[in-house]
Amino acid sequence: MPLSVEDDFAIAVLLPCHNEEQTIGDVVKRFRDALPGAALYVYDNNSSDLTALKARAAGATVVRESRQGKGNVVRRMFADIEADIYLMADGDGTYAPEDAPLLINTLMTERADMVVGTRRGVTDNAGRAGHAAGNRIFNGLYKRLFGRDFTDIFSGYRAFTRRFVKSFPAVSGGFEIETEMSVHASQLKLPVSEIALDYGRRPEGSTSKLSTCRDGAKILLMFALLMKETQPLRFFGTVAALFLIASTVLGVPVLIEFLETGLVPRIPTWVLSVGLLLLSMLMVVTGLVLDSVSRGRAEQKRIFYLSMPSGRRDNGIRPPRIDHHKAA
């Protein structure tokens, strides 16, 4: 059903695409039916097929992004498009455009800055056992490292306010972009919400662009980088603990031998042990210093986020005015 808020809010539907000629035309048409007042944008990421032509024929505005990778496309989309509400989905037909009004309605009623359409049954329909296992592992790892705000950090079906879009740095270049969005929201403690939605299969002949091993390694590296940036004391503390354990394992036998004989026959081992101990202490100091820097950066990011208009016409929750003359 058409969404009533379209009369009051500018809604932009953003579809990053790479070689989706089989599905993109139908996806654009269905989004037009679900959100007839929204502007539809397809960002073609160096497709070698007729993706751009099919999208343009279906009525979407097509923009080409030459830097390969979904993160690069999202960064370009968020910079280019001006709207009050943004809806992002994939062009492969796995997300139902008919669910778009529900996502946007939740964004408005929950007063959230991001709503994630979690993929119901993704572990059954991810296509490959590696994808399903990776989803479980990375979502569990995210909860341990960054908090329990999200249950499906890889979902590409999301609705955003203008405030989120224009304050999101978008550093990553590939499929790690959804992870970065989630960490950004968790770090700044932004209001977020999730809705469980059906997740479809790709049509026959359409193949996933996700590589289980390659993209899994990139996501794992992104986890480490984001942990270093947002939780440096925890990150460098872990490194310090590893150095300390190695120093202890190497140094204790040498120390025992010295106490028993008064001799240090394994001087290189002792030097290495002391070096590892010094590195452990250095990692702790580094973590403490960078923790203060990280807190300052988080405060600045929060202030910048609050300086952006929310995209809601009421500009936030306001208390009722009191007429003091009447009250008297």
From TrEMBL:
Xref: CDD domains: DPM_DPG-synthase_like
Keywords attached to this entry: Membrane, Transmembrane, Transmembrane helix
Domain of life: Bacteria
Transmembrane as UniProt keyword: yes
Regions that span the bilayer: 235-256, 268-290
Domain Glycosyltransferase 2-like: 13-165
Protein name: Glycosyltransferase
